[in-house]
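To whoever is covering the structure queue this week,

Two jobs came back overnight. Logging them here so there's a record in the thread.

Job A:
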Amino acid sequence: LQKLIHLLQATDDPLIQEQALITLGNSAAFSVNQDIIRNLDGLSIIGGMLSDCVPKVKEKALNALNNLSMNIKNQEEIQVYITQVCRNVESAPLNSDLQLAGLRLLTNMSVTSDYHHKMINSIPCFLHLLSEGTERTQIQVLKVLVNLSANPAMTRHLLRAQV
């Protein structure tokens, strides 16, 4: 895991970055690896890949963070990327794998109400995706919206949102 994280930092080759991110994401299926990746500063390194200009690298970084977000301590670190993830969802091509990867991460990050406030500005986007997206996109957006709607503090924001 340490070598993969160092490889991510050392290369600018998108194909190598994608493969390293896929492997890190798959490794995160085991909770012990989630802690190891966090302790190796892997979350911030993977999070840094969200600014990459190559969509496939962003998508693989989102998938890795999604798998890593199954851990409360990891969520505490990943939450700093929520605004950026929302921007990626908004700017990604409609129904793209990149958009779906961002929505999956937002679904996990919205299971508890701790970070709902960071998604308020994206509610109009979510509602737009709900009306314009394919069934896969709609299902993923509904998961985020259901999580947000479970928080009474979000009611006003959800009902006032302009689409």
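Job B:
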Amino acid sequence: MQRGRREWVGPREPSLYTVKAVFILDNDGNRLLSKYYDPELYPSMKEQKNFEMNVFNKTHKADNEIAFLEGMTIVYKSSIDLFFYVVGSAQENELMLMSVLNCLFESLSQILRKNVERRCLLDNMEGVFLVVDEIIDGGVILESDPQQVLQKVNYRADENPLSEQSVAQ
């Protein structure tokens, strides 16, 4: 019988499922968009909204780009009256999460013609959801280049607004 022998536990196996959630809140902490990719993380709407409010309370006055809360790594960015959040597990690479956040922000900035604010976001929600779905699918990062995302959602800054393109196709 061997005593005192411990088995070495190395780093976690890498996973493609890097993003746990993405959400956009207004400057009062109200949800404008949210997508949770891990059904076990916050299964109910109430739990999701509590988590979002906790994150908002911790981050809305902070001048950082990253937070750690409830065992999650959270990267975030604000613009005028919006807060953008990308959530990963505690072991997740912050740079990967930040690349998703930057891609989301830059893509939306193009679609909203640099007016990244609440009213414009709400007026273009179908385009916002298309962008999120092109960047992340089920928690897997598909794309982190804003130009590729815009190409995939068939967006052209000099043509019709996104909603008119979707109907015309």
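Note for Job B: Strands lie at 21-26, 31-36, 66-69, 72-79, 82-89, 136-137, 140-141.

Please reply-all if you pick these up so we don't duplicate work.
Q.
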